[in-house]
UniProtKB/TrEMBL annotation:
The gene is ispG. GO terms for molecular function: 4-hydroxy-3-methylbut-2-en-1-yl diphosphate synthase activity (ferredoxin). Keywords: 4Fe-4S, Iron, Iron-sulfur, Isoprene biosynthesis, Metal-binding, Oxidoreductase. Pathway: Isoprenoid biosynthesis; isopentenyl diphosphate biosynthesis via DXP pathway; isopentenyl diphosphate from 1-deoxy-D-xylulose 5-phosphate: step 5/6. Gene3D superfamilies: Dihydropteroate synthase-like, Sulfite Reductase Hemoprotein, domain 1. [4Fe-4S] cluster binds at C300, C303, C346, E353. Pfam families: GcpE, GcpE_C. It comes from Neisseria montereyensis. Residues 297-398 form the IspG C-terminal domain. This is 4-hydroxy-3-methylbut-2-en-1-yl diphosphate synthase (flavodoxin). The lineage of its organism: Bacteria, Pseudomonadati, Pseudomonadota, Betaproteobacteria, Neisseriales. The keyword Iron applies.
Length: 423
C-alpha cells in the first residue's frame, strides 16, 4: 500500500489548547520535560527549547505542592516568551489533592494525564479519579488516560487472572496482562464519560516496553474504541536502542493508520539535549511521508572512494544549519520544510542524487578532481573548489530558500506532504 492510500483510523477530535488531536488532524509530536517543575525558570526554558525544536505539546511533572504552585507561573513565562505550546500535567498518586489545593494549576494546564493504576484503590481511588475528571470537565480540559505496564491496576489484573484460571480455554498469563491494559483504559474512559467528561475530551494510551507487545496492544485497543491514541514505548532506552525500538514499533502502527500523537521516551545520554526525542519523533513521521518538519538531507554512507571526511562534515553542518534555521524559517518561508538537499561524496551516485534533490552538491572522492559541482532543480549551477566550499554551499541554500519560499517564491506554500485520509 502506498502512502497516498493510507487511511487513518477514525477517531474523535480532541482539542488540547490550540492543538487538535485526532484522525482529521496531522499526527502530533509531543515531549516531556525532565526539570524539577518547582524550578519555574528552568522548566519554562526547557519547554521553550522543546517547542522551538518542534514539540507541539509538552508534558510536565506535577507531583508535589511545590511543583503545582509553579505551573501558573510557568504558563505565564511561556506566554511572555511568545511560546503558546499547550502544557499537560502528569499526575499520579496525589493528583486530586494538588488540583484541589492549586486551582490556578488546574486552569493553566491544557490537559491532565491520569494513570488509573496510580490513582488509588477501591472506593477512595474511585473518588480521587472522579474529582480529577470533574475538575477537567469544569475547566473544559482534555484528559489522557494513560495505562502503563509497570503500574497496572493490580485489583483489575487479579480479577482478570482469576477469571482466566476458571475459563474453559485459559490464555497465557502475558496475554491476560495485555488484555488487562486495554480493559483498564476502556473502563476508565467509560467512567470518565459517565462522570460528565465528553468523549471528545479523552485520549488513551497503553504503554509497554516491548515492541511486539505494543503493536499488539494498540491494534486491539484501536479496534475497540474511537478515542485518539497516544503512541510511545515506555522506557524506550538510551541512544540507538531507544531510537530503533521506538521507530520499529511506531512505524508499524502509523503505517496501519493507528496513532494520533506520539512521544519518544528516550533516556538522554549525559550532556545530550532533551530535544533529541523531538527530533526522532519528527524524523519518524517525515521519513514515512506523513508530515514535513524540516528540510531533509540525503547523504551517502561513505566507502573506500570517500576517505576524506569533507562530505561527512558538510552533511552534518548542513543538517544542523537547516534545523537551527527552522525556528525562524517555519513562519518566514512557508513550505520550506519540504526542501530536499543532497550532500554526496563521490562521482558514483553523487551527480545523480544531486540532480534529484532541490539542491545538491557532489564532492570529490579519493583520486577525483578536487571540485564540487552544485545542482539546483536538476541543473548544474556552479562548481565549487577550495577551502570555502561549505560556506559557499550554505550561501547557495539560503539564496534558494529566499527565492523559492519567500514572498512571491514559486514554491511558497507548496508542501510536499503526502496526505493521509481518514477511514
Amino acid at each position: 500500500m502506498s502512502h497516498s492510500t493510507l487511511k487513518r483510523r477514525q477517531t474523535h477530535q480532541v482539542q488540547v489548547g490550540h492543538v487538535m488531536v485526532g484522525s482529521e488532524s496531522p499526527v502530533v509530536v509531543q515531549s516531556m520535560t525532565n526539570t524539577d517543575t518547582a524550578d519555574a525558570v528552568g522548566t519554562a526554558e526547557q519547554i521553550k527549547a522543546l517547542s522551538d525544536a518542534g514539540s507541539e505539546i509538552v508534558r510536565i511533572t506535577v507531583n508535589s505542592p511545590e511543583a503545582a504552585s509553579k505551573v501558573s507561573e510557568i504558563r505565564s513565562r511561556l506566554d511572555d516568551m511568545g511560546c503558546l505550546t499547550p502544557l499537560v500535567g502528569d499526575f499520579h498518586f496525589n493528583g486530586e489533592k494538588l488540583l484541589k489545593e492549586f486551582p490556578d494549576c488546574a486552569k493553566a494546564l491544557a490537559k491532565y494525564r491520569i494513570n488509573p493504576g496510580n490513582v488509588g484503590k477501591g472506593v477512595k481511588g474511585d473518588e480521587k479519579f472522579a474529582y480529577m475528571i470533574r475538575t477537567a470537565a469544569e475547566h473544559d480540559k482534555a484528559v489522557r488516560i494513560g495505562v502503563n505496564w509497570g503500574s497496572l491496576d493490580q485489583s483489575l489484573a487479579k480479577r482478570m487472572m482469576d477469571a482466566n484460571l476458571t475459563s474453559a480455554n485459559p490464555k497465557a498469563p502475558e496475554e491476560v496482562m495485555k488484555e488487562a491494559l486495554i480493559v483498564s483504559a476502556l473502563e476508565s474512559a467509560q467512567k470518565a464519560v459517565d462522570l460528565g467528561l465528553p468523549e471528545n475530551k479523552i485520549i488513551l494510551s497503553c504503554k509497554v516496553s516491548s515492541v511486539q507487545d505494543l503493536i499488539q496492544v494498540y491494534r486491539d485497543l484501536g479496534s475497540r474504541c474511537q478515542y485518539p491514541l497516544h503512541l510511545g514505548l515506555t522506557e524506550a532506552g538510551m541512544g540507538s536502542k531507544g531510537i530503533v525500538a521506538s521507530t520499529a514499533a511506531l512505524s508499524v502502527l502509523l503505517q496501519e493508520g493507528i496513532g494520533d500523537t506520539i512521544r519518544i521516551s528516550l533516556t538522554p545520554e549525559p550532556g545530550s539535549p532533551r530535544t533529541q526525542e523531538v527530533v526522532v519523533a519528527q524524523e519518524i513521521l517525515q521519513t514515512m511521508g506523513l508530515r514535513s518538519f524540516t528540510p531533509l538531507v540525503t547523504a551517502c554512507p561513505g566507502c573506500g572512494r570517500t576517505t576524506s571526511t569533507v562530505f561527512q562534515e558538510l552533511a552534518r553542518d548542513i543538517q544542523h544549519y537547516l534545523r537551527d534555521k527552522m525556528i525562524v524559517w517555519r513562519t518566514q518561508y512557508p513550505g520550506v520544510e519540504s526542501l530536499n538537499v543532497a550532500v554526496m561524496g563521490c562521482v558514483v551516485n553523487g551527480p545523480g542524487e544531486s540532480k534529484l534533490a532541490d539542491i545538491g552538491i557532489s564532492l570529490p572522492g579519493t583520486g577525483e578532481t578536487p571540485v564540487a559541482p552544485v545542482y539546483v532543480d536538476g541543473e548544474r549551477k556552479v562548481t565549487l573548489k577550495g577551502d570555502n566550499m561549505a560556506t559557499e554551499f550554505l550561501a547557495i541554500v539560503q539564496e534558494y530558500v529566499e527565492a523559492n519560499y519567500g514572498a512571491g517564491g514559486k514554491k511558497r506554500n507548496e508542501a510536499k506532504v503526502i496526505p493521509i485520509r481518514s477511514a
